[in-house]
Amino acid sequence: MKLAALAAFLGMAAPAALLAQTATPPTDSTVTGTMPSGEATGVAASQNPVVMPHSEAAPEPATAPAAASATPAATPQDFVNQAASSGMFEVQSSELALERAGSDEVKDFARMMIRDHGELNEQLKAMAAAKGLTVPAEIAGPPAQHMEAVTGAEGDSFDRTYLDHQAQAHAEAIALFEPWAEQTDDTDMAALAQKAVQHIRTHQETLEKIRAD
C-alpha cells in the first residue's frame, strides 16, 4: 500500500513541475499591456520620443528684398520721352478743365498745372536740345490713357474724372522723376528732376484737399 501511494503521488507531481518549467515569463510588453491607458502612453512617449519630419518644420523667415537702387534704369532719351508725355498731359488736360470744370477750385488747380508744368516742359525742351535728345510732339504711354479718359468726360462727371486722373498721373510722375533727382552723373538732369518733384509734391497736397471736399 505504501509503494502504491508513493507512485501515485509522484505521478501527479511530475506534470505540475513540467508545467512550471515551460510557462513563459511576463515580458515588458505584457506588463505595459496591463497598465492603464494613460500610464502606457507615458511609457511609450518617454521611450520613443516623437521626431517631426523635416518637411513639417517651421519655415524660416523670408529674406527681405533688397532696397531699390536710386540709379535710374531708363536712358536719358527714355526719361525725356516719359517726362514730356507727362508734362503735356498735365497742361492739355488742365486747359480742358478750364473749359469744362464746374468748380472754381478745380479751375484754380488747373491754372496751377498749366503754369508749373508749362515751365517744366520748356526747361525739358531746352535741356534736351543741349544734349542732342529728341522731345516727342505727342503724348504716349499712361499719360495718353489719362488724357483719353479726361477728354471723354463731360458734365457733372468731368471734375471728378479730371482730379482722379491727375492724382494717378502725379503718382506716376513721382516714380519717374525721383530716381533722376537722386542721381549724380548728370547734374543738369538731376536739377530739373528735383524741381519737378518739388512741384509735384505741392500739387499732390492740393489735390488731396480738393478731393476731400
TrEMBL record:
Domain DUF4142 positions: 75-209
PANTHER family the UniProt entry points to: BLR2558 PROTEIN (PTHR38593:SF1)
UniProt keyword annotations, A-Z: Signal
Region Disordered, residue ranges: 53-74
Protein name per its UniProtKB record: DUF4142 domain-containing protein
Signal sequence residues: 1-20
Superkingdom in the source lineage: Bacteria
Biased composition range(s): Low complexity: 55-74
Lineage start: Bacteria, Pseudomonadati, Pseudomonadota, Alphaproteobacteria, Rhodobacterales
